[in-house]
Amino acid sequence: MSGIKKIKNEKELLHEAIRIGSAYFEKRGAGKFDPKDHADIKVRAIYALLVKDNLIQPLAKNQEDVMHMKHKLALWMQRTLAEDHPLKSG
Question: Which of 65, 69, 35, 68 is nearest to 49 (CA)?
Fold first, then answer.
């Protein structure tokens, strides 16, 4: 990930972001993911909805790729989780 500072537990945070983001996506009425949908499809859709709902800042136009979106979702999850959540500490 050139140019992106890796965060602690980023892979796990992204997994949790997809899980929570998918539930938000469905509750928001934006649709429902198929279990066979690729993670990149989910990442793009969740990212777009969170930006639309002003829950995260949009990426710069030259950074709108899946790699940066994954990182952005991991950061969103890190901020969203409770301070005592295991993914925040270790």
Answer: 69
